[in-house]
Amino acid sequence: MTEKEKTVALYPAETRRRERFDRKSVAIAEKMLRRVEGLSHRPEALTPFLETLSDVFVDREDAIRPEGMPTVGTYCVMVPPELVYALGAMPVKLCGGSYTAFNIGDDTAPRDACPLVKAVMGFEEIDAMPIYQNCSLMAVPVTCDCKKKLAGWLSERRPTSVLHVPANRDLDADMEQFVGELYALSAQIGKATGESLTYESLSDACRMMADAQYELSRFIDLRRRYPRLIRGTFAMAAMNAMSYTYAPTWTEQMKALNDELTALARKKQMAVKENRPRLLLTGSPVVFPNFKLPLLIEEMGGLLAGDETCMGERGLYDPPAVVDRTVDGILRALANRSTRPCTCPTFADNKRRVYRIRQLINDYQIQGVVYHVLRGCLVYDYEYAILEEEMGKLNIPIIRVETDYNEED
Prior knowledge:
Strand content: 5-15%
Distance between the termini: 45 Å
Number of domains: 1
Order of helices and strands: HHHEHEHHHEHEHHHHEHEHHEHHE
Radius of gyration: 21 Å
CATH topology: Rossmann fold
CATH architecture: 3-Layer(aba) Sandwich
């Protein structure tokens, strides 16, 4: 008997469950990709980003990286990618967007738990995704109660580093604690990779990420100057693809996209007509293949002109401001960059988010706001009333859309 036949003979029910998962999850990912590809005016340079999403979610391939490089699974943008790269590993964002994995995780997590966390648990339970199973370490910042319980659940199954995020990023004592969290994380990554953290490795990693941030800044500038140049669904696909791509590779892909968009802008070839409503998407993360909301907006004739989600542009854009050129100085700069400009509602005082959204409305000539709330995502749901009041002052319509991980809602 082959190994596969032995497994089927020993665990027939589990094998059938995994086969059902493979069929359903692949079918949904393929369907979402077809819908993305079916949108008009798709740039040629978007193809590598869509291929990455297909490789990971359809073909079940691992993250794209240099051979032999280990991966560290991250569950929030507050894990600095520079720190992971400096220690010889590649960060892979593992927040789950799979409806099929969500259904499996639903048997493990409480009924009202966040669907994103349920999807992560489902991927872990089914043991079918290389991007999850091949990680040498999991890094989980505690940004909500569900992430806190997820960290404990993961730590019983694989090496896990738990990062305690300060409730108030403006207090020096809280920031000092977060710097300590990054030191602890670096020690655990170093243990997994066998590498030591040095000023040279940190500097090289910061330069590598700065190249990616530069191309993203070009992309943001193009969208700001020409709000109708590219569909927001395409932009979100490119940002999601970075989660599974080695940073220099993604940088080259984004450079090619920027060059193509620049040429289209010179020819005044826009993606949509001028009379299409320009919308901003904010709120809970939009993680592939859960692209139903951006697709709905643009398939119904709207233009997703900007997004303020942590899987979008704000997850990468801010570079660290390094003053003290030592290991400690760079780590402190990364700690500051990861928290002070962040608009995540995990913080007790989050006036920065209102300011940032007002800025985006002005930059992208926004005419309406779609506020995305994943069922059970209380931190984002709590801030809707605040944002609704602010949008009223600006005479900008806003709608709250609560969704779960299924195709019917």
